[in-house]
Amino acid sequence: MSVLPILKAHALQIVPEEHRWLVEALWAEEAVGIVGGEPKCCKSFLALDLAVAVASGTACLRRFPVARPGPVLLYAAEDPLHVVRQRLDGICRAAGVSLDNLDVHVITAPSLRLDLAADRSSLEETVAVLAPRLLVLDPFVRLHRIDENASGEVAPLLAYLREMQRRYHLAVVVVHHARKGAGNVRAGQALRGSSEFHAWGDCNLYLRRNAERLTLTVEHRAAPSGHSLPLVLQADGPALALAVAHASAPPSPDNPAALSPEERIHQALRQAAAPLPLQELRGRCRIRAAILCTTLNSLVQRGAVLKTPAGYALPTPS
User: Fold this and answer.
1) Whose C-alpha in 79, 215, 251, 263 is 20 to 30 A from the C-alpha of 231?
2) CB atoms within 10 A of CB 266
């Protein structure tokens, strides 16, 4: 009989604040969880937006920064591959990045069943070779032939994903359906099937539609959950991408909470007569240093902001 490995509490790892998030305020580093909602609530669009953000280092939904980007592994079981490409292309256009350079790897196998040992082994070997920071599986219902209402059948599949998350230090997003007509119950309890789904997630994102209003609710196991956010599916020609809808109060200097980090930076630089040093820019934007630096790096890489010896500035219109 072998003794289990142990550590004294004070010897447990301390994770710096800037390393606790894969996607700031949306998805924790190495977290597993659910993107849930009823049919036609844009769950796949949100999962793909997370994938583009992590792979490119741009802000998810143009609002939530990614500090440390990396490869993403995606299996989209319901949509044809040309539709997956079209959606990714639209999100890339909204994010200001090129699909050609996107570090998203799409599994093209016709089926993937987590209740089959051979398929689990193939997925794990793929993860081991690619070393993704994020694995997206969309949707759960197409990944098995078990009874989703039976916790004894659901739990082993979720445990397998948790074990893989711990072994390979990656985050896992599983897209899952909510029950129809469950709009009056707590979002996590509205998920279809066993309560294991709700209990399993470290981070869960829930989409709900009320008439024409689409709302995102964020839930975390180890961090405060944010307020619900209104979302819209915006079109740019044939391209589609989700975006955070502005609250009823319009973005303004007197209403900074209505502005994303990128919007705050652009506003501060537009109002400045000269380039702004980092500390002065932080004071004007009123956002945390880690978020400011991450967002600035993304804007500089995309050419939306210039970094000069005197500080940061907007490009001069040609």
Assistant:
1) 79
2) 17
